[in-house]
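In practice, a research group might receive sequence data for several interacting partners and want a quick structural hypothesis before committing to experiments. The following worked case mirrors that situation: the sequences arrive first, and a predicted assembly follows.
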Amino acid sequence: MAPLGRGHTVKAFSGELEQLTADVARMGGLAESLVSDAIEALVTRDIDLAMSVVERDKKLDDMQRDIEKQILRLLALRQPMAGDLRATISALKIISDLERVGDLAKSSARRVKPLSEIEPSALNKAVERMGRLVQGHLNQVLNAYATGKAEQAVGVWARDDDVDEHYAALFRELLTFMAEDKRLIGPGAHLLFVAKNLERIGDHATNIAEVVHFLVTGEELTRERPRGPRPELDAT
Amino acid sequence: MSDFDGNPLLSSSAPVRTPDRPRRRDIVITAGLGLSILIVLLSVGVIDLLPFLASAAALSALAFVYLLTAITSAQPLPARAPIATLKSGGESLADAILDRLETPVLLIGPGGRIERANPAARAFLGLANEGALLSTVLRQPSILEAVSAALRGESGSTVEYATLSPHESHVRAFVEPIKIETDGALPWRAMLCLSDETSAKRAERMRADFLANASHELRTPLASLAGFIDTLRGPAREDAKAQARFLSIMSDQTDRMRRLIDDLLSLSRVEMNEHILPDTQVDIAQVASEVVMALELVAQNRDMAIELIAPPEDERVLIHGDVDQIHEVIENLTQNALKYSHEGQRVVVEVLSSLSRDASEHLPERIGEMSARLTIAAPALDSQARYGVIRVRDEGDGIDRRYLPRLSERFYRVDGQKSGPKAGTGLGLAIVKHIVTRHRGGFTVESAPGVGSVFTVFFPLDQRSAKSAAAE
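A structural hypothesis for the assembly, expressed as tokens:
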């Protein structure tokens, strides 16, 4: 990935591209930690941690703005070509996915407070399991981005149906859960949104995987992604 | 500290450390000394010839035994820098200490560039070469912030972080600013020291979990036992028929409690060592055939067939593993398959070698049109790795897709299996999952109601066996 040693006529350009990759990775690290802390807060019913996630999401937005400026500057001054252009555009795409990931983590963290008011149920475990899976996917695509391993990114991309499977199972369980006791409809709805947020984060991870593939190989990932069950399409 | 390029101590060879036991030379000297004392005693006439010969023989036998232990206990240690004579004090000594340290230590320069990383740090972060930017290899925001602060010359700090993927680990990082003499405008460096505290954290949580699980799950059978004892003492004191019935229920309950405790202990043991990779070699094909042989009788008694499909006998499927744990995995899966099969059905245990990650995870064809597939545990993706695979397939009722994610949850039993004499403890698959994770392997399930289920576990092949298989 690091274009060091490929030798740009203007040496500073190599440095700038490398810095760009490092900054995107850093932003990825922050997004990952937001997702991880949101899940942690949900499981341990830690409202302070949840509030810190909401707070830190602002920082993620700031980072996105800074990196965007950096990219605009790079495009205007260096007019990158080929691999350099791909690196620049990929960074632009990835940061917008990461920003969305941060928003989804924030939205999940906001639901910790109402969810802490009811007894913890077995469903929390299911949400945690799904969350850890999604977190793992995000971690692996960001690793793939930092190390330039396209096949690792494709591996994560191909495994997104596992997330769908978890989501579908959770969706059905939540419906049963809410049908059993009317008082649980409120918390159940919150959990449903958390599950949906996690599923969306998984989708953003696959988006990033596609970008990494394009960045490394120069080709688009045109295969059809395997899809798991979709509760939205089920009549039940 | 200004020159980070040349490091004469990094050349690697594989030295063999001499054992701590008595060395051969010491043994020879000791035996010789004893022998000469005996000769002196013989010549002075204190002892006769026969006792002399006997004690000389005993002495040499003893020496021989020591010699053997001295030789056999010599084991090669992992490659370390060769022992070189160093000047006391000075940079090279500090370098040598740093390189031998098992704690990852890094020196971060301006802009967050890694200027120096000791071998432990390179291994820990998977760092190919120095000179990379820290944020590309260690994305933890808390650490990056602490490092930035140190690079501005502010005070150092200690931060903790946890990652769950690909493996759970808890790390405490110690960041401290260092000022160096330089011509440039940026004299500050940050020293970053990482210490892995996974074992401690894990032990803490395990103890809490074990207590919670044990007390929660043992309470029910215990309460029912207490109830029966009261009844036997009171109302049923004279009723022989009721007594017999109660005693048989009580015996079932105690059996269940024993199984529970066994499983809980087994789970705790596995969890405790989950982050330590086993270093012995196991032939999974052999273990699978042992399990199948042991369970064949059980299957016959219930009018079921159990079949083993394995590579030819001379081909070994070697993995790094703990043989008892691998045995437990295959046994648990096969027993489960038998438990949820019906009379006249067949259970197939299949062992495969050298499959890629994608091929290991699931069968090439789905078992049924509407089958659900789920990966319960999986190692980090590596397109180069090859795996030894065990698939256990049954023709039972199958599992509804909505239950699949919860299968490896502790004490989880799919609805309708919660009671009855053959009820499991609900820990079997949790144990399998933890053992597989410990072996850096994967665990998947595919199931279709009415068609059956396939449980797959796969483990990275031992490199040596992979090579020999390729050579053939």
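Before designing any experiment, note the following. The first strand of chain B starts at residue 105 and ends at 108. The interface with chain A takes residues 111-112, 131-142, 144, 162-166, 357-358, 372-375, 380-383, 401-406, 409 of chain B (CB under 8 Å).
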